Amino acid sequence: IVFAMRQLNPMLTDEEVKMVTDQLVLKSYKKNDYFIREGQVPQEIGFCVKGAFRQFYRKQDKEVNCNFMLEYDFLVAYASMLRHEPSRYYIQALEDCEILSYSTTNSEELYCSTRNWERYGRHVAQWVVLQLNDQLEALQFSNAKERYNDLLAKHSNWLGRIPLKYIATYLGIEQETLSRLRAKSTVRQEVLR
């Protein structure tokens, strides 16, 4: 977690990092357990140490996956945390997982405590906005094949760990379309060899 924090703000001092590490709690989640459910106000921020989670929402009895968090990723319903509002999302374990967590109250106090923590908070916000922007633009401006190729380039570690039905909804396509794209990609790789 220290490495991940320093990637967002390398200026954090050892003393500033200790302000968080002293408050971390190790938690275990079994496959299908929830880190947060729709309707809950976020009370903690998690850092995935082991395992995989998915973030999704329900729309007309259908689950739509919007993010996957694996090792070294943070878990939080970010907008709900900032607004102190009930989450519209679920975050669920896809495998047996371990996380380090700290309270959202502590994070707000941290951002007010030092200039470096304030910068850290700004970097987190910028990262979240850019990630959401990339997803939105992919859905608006890219076709299914381009979205799949982008996933292969940026998140190849998801394949084999995330069920294909979840990846399909993340890409905004049907599972059958994803299967066709995967088959064409495999054939193309074999031809290139």
Short description:
With 193 residues, the protein is of the alpha+beta class. Helices cover 50% and strands 22% of the residues.
Features:
alpha+beta, 4-stranded antiparallel sheet, 8 helices
What does this structure look like?
This protein is an alpha+beta fold and 193 residues long. Helices cover 50% and strands 22% of the residues. The protein has 8 helices and 8 strands, in the order ααββββββαββααααα. Strands 1-8-3-6 form a 4-stranded antiparallel sheet. A 4-stranded antiparallel sheet has the order 2-7-4-5. A hairpin with a 2-residue loop joins strand 4 and strand 5. Helix 4 (104-113) packs across helix 5 (115-141) and helix 7 (164-171) packs across helix 8 (175-192). The longest helix has 27 residues, at 115-141. The model has no long low-confidence stretch (mean pLDDT 90).
